[in-house]
Amino acid sequence: MTTWICDGCGLEHPDSAEAPPLDGCVFDVGPVSDEELGDLGPHTRQWLTLDELAAQPHSTEHRDHGRGVHSFRRLPRLGIGQWSFLVCTADGNLLWDPPAYLDDEIESLVRGLGGVSVIATSHPHMFAAQVSWSHAFGQVPVLVNTAARQWLPRPDPVVAFWDGEVQPLPGLRVIRLGGHMPSSAVALTPDGSLLAGDTISGSLDPGWLSFQRNYPRHVPMSAGTVQRLVDDLEAVDFDRLYTLGGDAIERDAHDVVRNAARRHIRWVSGEFDHLT
C-alpha cells in the first residue's frame, strides 16, 4: 500500500494499491462555487509517492529567523510551495504548516534542530504530508481544527481535533481566526512571533500586508472580516510576523497589521470609489 501525494496542492491521501484518479484530490470537488469554501478545482497533474519525491533532484532551503524560529521549503517548488516552520522551545518543537515531502535531508535537518513534538497547520491547504511527518517522529499529535474536518484527506489516530484556541506546548498558542477559510489559524510563539499562514499575507511592498479570501483569484476579504481579525488580534502580543509565502515583518509587526487593515477596509468599503 502506498501514500499518494497530489502534485497540485501537496496533500497526502490514504494508502492504496493504486493511485487515485486525477480528480480524486480532496480539494478537487468539481467547479468552484461562489462561496469558495476551500475547493481548488481541477489541479492534479499526477500522483507521486514520498520515495519518488525523494528521488527527484531537489534541495531544501533553510532560514534561521532567530529566537527559536526556523523555516524551510523545497526547491524546486512542490504543490503550493509554502514555507514550513519549526518553532523550537525548551519544552519541545512545533512543526507548523509541514512540508509535502519527507526525505533524509530534511528529516536530518529537523532532527538536528530537536525534532518534532507536535504538528499544526494554518488551514487545510497546508495539511501536506502531516501524517507521514508524525509517523516519522514517533506518531506525535497532529492538531486539526474541527472546522477543517471535511478537508482531512488522510484520517489517522494521531489526529486530534481542536477549536477556539489550543496550547500544544507551554507558552505557545494556536488561535482560530477564520477569514481565508473558516478554520484558518495563527500560531503565537513564546517569544512573540506570529506565524500567520494565509490568514494574513504579504504584498509586493515588503513592509506591507494583505488580506485575501481566495489567493488564486485575488478575491479580497470583506471590510467586516478584516476588522474582526484585527479586533481579535488586539489580545495577541507580537512584534514579528511570518507568512507561509515567505514574507517577514521583523519589527513592529502588530502596528503593520493594524495599518494595512485600516487601509484595506477603507478601500474595499468604497471610501475611495470617487477616485476610480
Describe the structure.
The protein is α+β, with helices and mostly antiparallel strands and 276 residues long. The protein is 18% helix and 29% strand. It has helices at 50-55, 104-112, 130-136, 223-233, 253-268, and strands at residues 2-6, 12-16, 47-48, 59-66, 69-75, 84-89, 92-96, 118-120, 142-145, 159-162, 165-169, 172-176, 185-188, 193-197, 212-214, 219-220, 240-243, 248-249. It has a seven-stranded mixed sheet. A six-stranded mixed sheet has the order 11-12-13-14-17-18, covered by helices on one side. A three-stranded antiparallel sheet has the order 2-1-3. Strand 13 and strand 14 form a beta hairpin. Helix 4 (223-233) runs antiparallel to helix 5. It is globular, with a radius of gyration of 18 Å. The termini are far apart.
Nutshell version of this structure?
With 276 residues, the protein is α+β, with helices and mostly antiparallel strands. The chain has helices at 50-55, 104-112, 130-136, 223-233, 253-268, and strands at residues 2-6, 12-16, 47-48, 59-66, 69-75, 84-89, 92-96, 118-120, 142-145, 159-162, 165-169, 172-176, 185-188, 193-197, 212-214, 219-220, 240-243, 248-249.
